Amino acid sequence: MYSRLSQLARHLSRPIPNYAHRSAASSLTSSLVHPAPASIMAAERQKAMIHTAGCIIIGDEVLGGKTVDSNSAFFAKYCFSLGIQLKRIEVIADDEAEIVEATRRMSTTYDMVVTSGGIGPTHDDITYQSIAKAFDLPLKEHTEAFERMKRLSRPHKSQPDFDWNVPSPALNAKKRMIILPTDNSRPLEDQVVFVSDELWVPISVVNGNVHILPGVPRLFEQMLMGLKASLLPRLTDPEGKGVYRLLFSTPLAESAVAEYLTELASRVEAKGIKVGSYPRWGKDRNTVTLVGRDLEFMESLVPEVEKAVRGHRVSTEDEDDALEADNNAEK
Q1: Which of 81, 188, 220, 250 could pair with 309 in a Cys bridge, judged by C-beta atoms 3.0 to 4.6 Å apart?
Q2: Which residues on adjacent β-strands are paired with residue 250?
């Protein structure tokens, strides 16, 4: 009995093997051979059909009124043209906790997420590091993006002595823009997208569906348009026809057409058609809309709607404004 107890004591006194410890190289090799569940889900998410989208505008300057955000409006029109339902737009501060929370939540909730802003060279540009933290990813310098930056960008005139090959604070600041969240277990080409040979700025794709874009409107718009071709195969309508919107100009008040529009909305809901009513403050005419994918069915409703709202179909909301102005002038 004593002998067995002694053997047990000696066994328990041995150091416990550190199974959790692995070298960085062995961990990377293991992750490439056996991707983590999160990486597998990210890969699946990046190939899934796109039905819904969310947009996160990041920047203290927007919240402080210094900058007027136009990117969310552009993205809304972009989604509409592709038939993607834009479900949410949020404007948040340059705050790590807010960026982490918003990107995690939207990535889980929507098929496609776009962020705008916070990827410049200064201390308050924290989008990359915050989104990396949101999904437990390291930040790595992207070699191709850096080579593109050196080839396609020019130092500011206030930096005449700047040298790409000489370490300096200015070089470190520029490199902040190409140090990206990177999942070592996934192909790099799936995580970094270059939409034009003329642009060095990459679209960093994190967790399979979070697309990190710059806040500069010209770049934001150009990069989204460059991304369009890769999105088309993942849309309900692969030809990218999107949805249609028919506009009607009516001289009637919203309250006068409310009963009819309520009945119409109930009747066409099964066809995926949405009915809208929009007052035009300070104008004599309001707007009624039909929005949906079934253009033929929507066209068949035009005579009925025109009669019911005592109006007519128009191409733009302000189409009748000139006529209205003339009529008012005659009075």
Answers
A1: 250
A2: 286
What residues contact 146, with CB distance under 8 A and at least 6 apart?
175, 178
For the chain, the domain total comes to: 2
| Dihedral in degrees, nearest 10, Cα atoms 209, 83, 75, 281 | -140
What CATH number should be reported for the domain holding residue 170? Answer: 3.40.980.10
Cα–Cα–Cα angle for 300, 303, 307, rounded to 5 degrees = 145
Same domain, 323 and 198: no
Classify residue 226 by burial, with Cβ atoms within 10 Å: 0-12, 13-18, 19+. middle
How far is residue 324's CA from residue 59's CA, in Å, rounded to a whole number? 41
In whole angstroms, what is the distance from residue 125 CA to residue 144 CA?
21
226/120 same-domain check = yes
CATH code of the domain in which 262 resides: 3.30.70
pLDDT digits (tens, 9 = 90+) for 160-209: 999 999 999 999 999 999 999 999 999 999 999 999 999 999 999 999 99
Nearest to 310 by CA among 264, 257, 233, 258: 257
> Do 229 and 248 have their domain in common?
no
